[in-house]
Every structure is written in C-alpha cells, then in structure tokens.
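#struct-help
A.M.: can someone run this one for me? Single chain, 432 residues.
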Amino acid sequence: MPFDGIALYAAINEIKSQILGHTINKIYQPKNDQLIISFRHGIEEKFLLVSANPNNCRIHLADNLPDNPSTPPMFCMLLRKNLLGGKLTNVNQLGLERVVEFTVQNKNEFMKQVEYKLLVEIMGKHSNIILVDNSTNRIIDCIKRITSDVNRYRQILPNRQYVFPPIGEKCNFLLIDKKHILSLILPAIKANTQKNISSWILENIMGLSGRTAKEIVKRADVEDVQIGFISNDKLYKVIDALADLREQVKANSFFPTIYYEPKSLEPVDFWVFPMSLRDGYIAKISDSVNKAVDRYYFLKEQADALKSRNTSLTLQISKFIEKKSKNIYLIKTRLSETDEMNKYKLWGEILSAYLYLIKPGVNKVKLANFYEPGHDIEIPLNKKMTPAQNAQHYFNKYKKLQSAKAIIKKRLKKMQQEMEYLESVLVNAQNC
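D.P.: on it. Structure tokens below:
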C-alpha cells in the first residue's frame, strides 16, 4: 500500500503528540532526497525522518536511522542555518492530501522572531521538501528544484512564491457522510459511467490510493464492476464500507499492520488497518503507526538494497560468463587447428624421402604418398627455401602444434571448470 493520505493522517496524529512544541536540535541529510531532524525536549530526543524518494516517500518518527555523510549537502546547511534552535509550533496536513506543513518559530541573526514553514509533499516522483519564509510565502530553497522546463504551471525555486500543488475537486474523506457519498455517486450511475467502482472512489475521494479504493470494494464484499452496472444493495454496501472506514479514521482506531511474504519473509505491504487484500500473507500488528512505518520501510529498503546488489552481481557474473564463453570458443578453434599437425608430419616425411626429385625454387610439388600406394599428394613449398629446409619447416610446425595441443587441452579443461563454477554462482545469485 502506498503511503496514502490516511496513513499520513495517522502518522501525523502521533507526530503531533510526541514532538509538537519541541526544539530542533540537529538536522542531517543522509541521502539526496532524505532528511533526519532531531527534536529535543529536556532529555528526551525524537528523530523525524522525511523522505522525498520517488519510491519510498514518507514522513515518520524513526528509530532505525541511516548513516550520515561526513560533509552535509547545501540544502542541509541551509536548514541548519534557519531552523536549528527553532521550536515546532504546528503540524498541519492539507485535508487528507499528502502535503504537510511544519511551522517552526526561530530567531534570525538579528535576534528577531521569524517563522518558517517546512512543507513536505509526498507525491511519488513529484515529492519534495521545501523551506518557505512564512511572512512572505517565498521559497528559501528546496531539496528538488523544479524549473519551467519540468513544470510550467508550478516552479519550485528560491525567491518564488510558494503555490500548493493542484488538488482537484476531490471530497475530504473525513467531512462527508453517507448522504453526501450517495449524492456524489448517483450521477455517475445515471450517466452509466464506464469506470470501475474503485476507479470512481480514487478519483472522487481525497486521501485514498488505488489500493485503498480496492480494499474498500473488497471490504464491501462486492465485485469491482463498472459503476453504471452496480445494483442498489451493492451500492449501499460500498457506501457503508466507506463510512465505516471514515469512522475508524476519525476515531483514530488504527491497527498498523505489516505484511510479510510467507516463504521469504520479505515485507510486501503496510497499512494503518488490516487489509482484506492481503489474506494469505503473514500479518504483524504494531502498537504505533510510526513504529510500523519505520519498521516496514527499514526492512523494505534493506530488501531493495539487497536486490540491487544481487542484480548488479548477476550482471557482473553474466558478463564474466559471456567473456569466458568467447575465450572457450577461441581455444576450441585453436584446438581444432592442431588436428592438422599429422598432415605436416606426413609432408615432412615425404619431402625428406624424395629430396632428390624436388627442384629448387618451385612453390609446390606432387609426390607419391608411400602410406597410400597409388595415390599422389601435392605439397606447398616455400620457393625461397631448399627442399630440405621445407621438410624441416613442416617437422618444426608439427612439433609446435603437438606441444600446443597438450597446453590448449589443459587450458580448455581449466576454463570449462571455471565456466561451471560461474554458472553455479549465477544460479545461486538468481535464487537469493
């Protein structure tokens, strides 16, 4: 389940209760798109992880902290300059959208009271972390600068006015009741809309991801059919499922659950409620949303890193195997060339036996093959050599190939053993 608006709402509620009013003590930027902010209150210290990673964007209190770089990036230094020593006075989520404002009061270099907003946009590949001067609503800087080449409507650059991302006309999930839901869905049914129930929920209700919408349909125990074909009784089941989920969210009755693959025990999903879509997986419920999010993404990033290293290793082994295959082919080609060594021995013997018949300066000669009576054999000659020298040349070539054959066979055997080893390593790497 993506880190949707409901999961963010649950995490923010816990974050407010634990760090609101606390002082920013340290700021780190372990990755290009990730921040760790330390909040201190007395002897108590809490760490907030904020990630704008396209695949793992999220906000949560963290216990599993990544290593920090020895040299802080420029954005991290800017945050330290403006936010260190500041007090977190408010945390606000924009409806159920995945946009959060952290309001920090601090003093500038002239000891005047100033107020900043650290805005976190959790939107997949468009995720960002933006520092804004609250008095002017101007962007001081951001972790990802967005120019007009990337987005003409909304540039995120220093000294520009901050503009919230477009939200659309979705309804806030927490502010609507059954009648409101019915009034929204009936026009779609009358218009014989071709979209499935889950698609309609996703496009009209704020704070839900695609999988959340499918989970609601699953909880309603109805098929995810086109909304124009839904019967009245199934329609009310969907509305009841939406209303029940809304009441659970409003009451903060969260049961954060991590799902694991039964065989590999790898984390495959997380949500703030148990999921009907994940029946058959190992489910572990946590007593804290932030702890569950921290645990899930810590394990997920470990698994992703292992898969990345495994992919890299597999690629390297495959390259070695390809190179080794080419070498084996070349060696086999050379080995096949040694099959002609007996021919050179025969030519040397025949030339030695008929030296008296060979005229100097010719480039070939046809002589009787005494190993096959009645058959002649044509032997090429180097006309710059004497007949005796030509015979000796072929004997030397025979001896050279004879020695090479033994060496090549030994080398070929060794390379074939290396190939078998590499193939076994590749199989093991692919099965990891």
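A.M.: thanks! DSSP finds nine helices and 16 strands in the chain.
D.P.: also worth noting: The mean pLDDT is 89.
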